[in-house]
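Handout, section B. The chain below has 111 residues.
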Amino acid sequence: MKINYSYCDGQMGSQAVSRETSEVSEVTKHLYDLTQPKRSLMTTPPGVDGYLDFHVRDDGSIEMEIMERCNDDFANVNVATAERVIQVAMTDTRELLLRQKLDGLPIDWIT
């Protein structure tokens, strides 16, 4: 299954790089670049009726947003958890909301 994603390095005037891939590793490699404020990785996984985004806050922490079927969920995640979330989003074909698919992961949900 293919995923569309965009990576933005957070620099003023820079363009987001947008691509489509079926390789989990191509998407997750950008998670390791989420080290400075304003950087972001935006995805539209095939099993998600909406989007999955990661954004670096001003304090350097990573916020994850899942917008799916009018449900908007936010969580604080580290790179390892974000990587696992993308793997699940790209490979789990069950007919469940992504948040339900992530139930077994140690995620610090804000909402």
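Note. The longest strand covers residues 50-56. Compare this with the example in section A.
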